[in-house]
Specification:
InterPro entries: DgoD-like, Enolase-like_C_sf, Enolase-like_N, Enolase_C-like, Gluconate_dehydratase, Mandel_Rmase/mucon_lact_enz_CS, Mandelate_racemase_C, Mandelate_racemase_N_dom
Helix content: 25-40%
Protein name: gluconate dehydratase
Bound molecules: D-gluconic acid, magnesium ion
Strand order of the largest sheet: 5-6-7-8-9-10
EC number: 4.2.1.39
GO molecular function, one term: gluconate dehydratase activity
Oligomer: single chain
Largest sheet: 6 strands, parallel
CATH class of the largest domain: Alpha Beta
Low-confidence stretches: none
Organism: Metallosphaera hakonensis JCM 8857 = DSM 7519
Length: 394
């Protein structure tokens, strides 16, 4: 099949998601010469505008190509772009198109991705909850909502307990963060896993202090304890802590990932198929992690196409730890965007057997919610913060 049209869409509505960027989706629709349709998804963040135009640019490299040659098509873009390894916009654009191509090939042969990728390793993908702590500030707020998450059947949940602290944290911040984590541990009991999100925002000294205070609550992992590119910070953190480190959502290539694995900086890799290079690069990255004895917990914070394709890849790999899940905290239109939903039951998702990425898109929602890409406002609370938590409680 020849690639005939590639169309990006920005979807948004008044209904708020768990964070500013969680209220949007950047969708890519690919149509072939024989009228088949595949869908992919790109990352929004504050770059909705530039990602939208990156998709238009990257499309020029894919139009007229054959959907049978997914690997070669990716490589062709790698060759053309020159700055791909340095451009988040190009990486997410090519990822979205790649996901749509895998969707198309699955639909063409009538097989779900898991079948094309080696077959199911598991029928159910274990997930952890994120996005559940909107507007939580006090320990009581966190405890109440965490309890609710466990009542919904989740066995693992992630949260960022650090309020507005950035770069460094003082005694007051350490005390407040600890009170929140303690409250959550007490609310969920010993058997539910707690994952601590730092959003890559501390210097190593502060992150190490945090680890000292929080280790006793047995977090499953500490996510992005230091700034993403702070290699020396990661090394220092590793030298002073024994707690597991998770990272990877901002990685944009196979070889960038190799660096973190080979340096021994990561225990749990968190690749995101919507910026690592789609399924084509994503499947290599998770196999490489397997060889390093590193588990995988896919980053999955944006929309229902990302969620669907990640369920497929998560179902086939032996080294899966968990898949991130916002599904229950999506604005409702993100759930409605796909016809056959992927609900979470008892902390896991049943792997769909429908062709391609395993879901069908409801085009009516696209027509209703498509919007012109416009530069986003930059509010005091950064877009990556779960809404209403960028506050101190005392
Ligand atoms: O691991 C993650 O999920 C990310 O770091 C973020 O994507 C956030 O948690 C998100 O900002 C909340 O919407
Ligand atoms: Mg994160």
């Amino acid at each position: 099949m020849k690639i005939q049209e590639i169309t990006p869409y920005v979807l948004t509505s008044k209904e708020k998601g768990s964070a500013t960027w969680a209220s949007m989706m950047v969708l890519v629709k690919v149509v072939t010469s024989n009228g088949m349709i595949g869908y992919g998804e790109a990352v929004p963040t504050l770059r909705v505008n530039t990602v939208f135009s990156a998709i238009q640019q990257v499309s020029k490299g894919f139009l007229g190509k054959d959907t049978d040659n997914i690997e070669r098509n990716y490589h062709e873009w790698y060759k053309q772009d020159f700055y791909l390894s340095r451009s988040f916009e190009s990486a997410t654009a090519v990822s979205a198109i790649d996901i749509a191509l895998w969707d198309l090939v699955g639909k063409e042969v009538g097989a779900p991705l898991h079948k094309l990728l080696g077959g199911k390793f598991r029928e159910y993908v274990p997930v952890y909850a994120n996005g559940w702590y909107k507007d939580c500030v006090t320990p009581e707020d966190f405890a109440r909502e965490a309890k609710n998450v466990t009542r919904m059947g989740y066995k693992a949940l992630k949260f960022d307990p650090f309020g507005p602290y950035y770069d460094w944290i003082d005694e007051r911040g350490l005390v407040e963060s600890e009170e929140r984590v303690k409250a959550v541990r007490e609310a969920v009991g010993d058997e539910v896993e707690i994952l601590i999100e730092h959003h890559g925002r501390f210097n190593a000294n502060s992150a190490i202090e945090i680890a000292k205070r929080l280790s006793k609550y047995r977090p499953l992992f500490m996510e992005e304890p230091v700034h993403h590119e702070d290699i020396e910070g990661y090394r220092k953190y590793r030298a002073h802590t024994s707690i597991k480190v998770a990272m990877g959502e901002r990685l944009v290539s196979l070889k960038e990932t190799l660096f973190y694995l080979r340096e021994g900086l990561v225990d749990v890799l968190q690749p995101d198929l919507t910026n690592i290079g789609g399924v084509t690069v994503g499947r290599k990255v998770v196999s490489m992690a397997e060889a390093f004895d590193v588990e995988v917990a896919f980053h999955n914070a944006f929309g229902s196409i990302q969620n669907s394709v990640e369920i497929q890849l998560a179902s086939v790999i032996p080294n899966l730890l968990l898949l991130e899940n916002f599904y229950d905290w999506f604005p409702s239109w993100k759930r409605d965007l796909v016809n056959n939903g992927t609900p979470v039951e008892s902390g896991r998702v049943k792997v769909p057997n429908k062709p391609g990425i395993g879901v069908e898109v409801n085009e009516k929602i696209i027509e209703e919610l498509k919007a012109n890409p416009v530069p986003l406002e930059v509010p005091e609370e950064p877009v990556w913060v779960v809404g209403g938590t960028w506050k101190n409680f005392k």
